[in-house]
Amino acid sequence: MRPENKKKIKVLPNGPYAVSGDIPLNQLRYVSDQKGASTEYKLIQQYKTSETYHLCRCGRTNNHPFCDGSHLAGIPFDGTETASRATYKEMAEVLEGKQIDLLDAEDLCAVARFCDTYGTTWELVENSTDPAAIDIIKKQCADCPSGRLTPVTKAGEIIDPELPQEISLLEDMPAEAHGPIWVKGGIPIEDAEGNRYPVRNRVTLCRCGKSKNKPFCDANHMQNQGELE
Ligand code: FES
């Protein structure tokens, strides 16, 4: 168990994410293969931050990725939180595989496409009897930023990667869109009323303002393809 610390992300009502506890912040991009499947992350930059900072949640800031108050100007931002408070286990369906099983919480999908290498994770789980497939499945799931996919051994062991407590802004260059905010290492997230969401090892928060599953990303940022041109 991680010791309690002051690291926290607070969703402000119709406003930004208030980050506290000196959480490191960087920007990563997906590296993809010829078919557009994501294979790894590449560091673009490390931000210099202070003990607290505010990350844009509406997608309109001119001081990317930090809030510049744009949510207060013009059309007001509706940041109403609609996400379930269910735990990952309550949300996930179980897919029984040949060598390993898979937990799949589809509502969390951020379309990062790490599950599309070597066919797809689901195909490998359901059909492959090659022992090498287990390592591929583990990597695909470990790279999934939203934590939608989690492998489970036939002995019932849940395999979750060890992640540092940090925040990464994900850039989807193939789709030419800003991706979500990747929160790693079990950092607590508190809603606008002060209630804590079930803590997970990795989650993806919306930063485009379009998610229907706020504060989490539901891949609606893919509507913005071309915004990085
Ligand atoms: S960043 Fe993915 S839906 Fe907003």
Produce the secondary structure layout.
Layout: E1 8-11, E2 17-20, E3 25-32, E4 38-46, E5 52-55, H1 88-91, E6 93-95, E7 100-104, H2 121-127, H3 132-143, E8 149-153, E9 167-172, E10 177-184, E11 189-190, E12 202-205
Parallel strand pairs: 1-11, 3-9
Antiparallel strand pairs: 1-2, 2-5, 3-4, 6-7, 7-8, 9-10, 10-12
Residues 110, 180, 206-208, 210-211, 217-221 line the site of FE2/S2 (inorganic) cluster.
Explained architecture:
This protein has 229 residues and is mainly β. The protein has one domain. It is built from 3 helices and 12 strands. It has helices at 88-91, 121-127, 132-143, and strands spanning 8-11, 17-20, 25-32, 38-46, 52-55, 93-95, 100-104, 149-153, 167-172, 177-184, 189-190, 202-205. The protein has a 5-stranded mixed β-sheet with strand order 4-3-9-10-12, with no helix packed on it. The chain has a 4-stranded mixed β-sheet with strand order 5-2-1-11, with no helix packed on it. The longest helix is centred in the middle third of the chain and has 12 residues, at 132-143. The radius of gyration is 18 Å and the shape is globular. 34% of the residues are buried. FE2/S2 (inorganic) cluster (FES) is lined by residues 110, 180, 206-208, 210-211, 217-221. FE2/S2 (inorganic) cluster is lined by residues 110, 180, 206-208, 210-211, 217-221.
- Mean pLDDT equals 94
Question: What topology, given as strand order, has the largest sheet?
Answer: 4-3-9-10-12
Major β-sheet, in short? 5 strands, mixed
The helix fraction, in percent, is 10-25%
User: Compounds present?
Assistant: FE2/S2 (inorganic) cluster
Strand content: 25-35%
Poorly predicted runs of 5 or more residues: none
Order of helices and strands: EEEEEHEEHHEEEEE
Give me the count of strands.
Answer: 12
Question: What would you call the structural class?
Answer: mainly beta
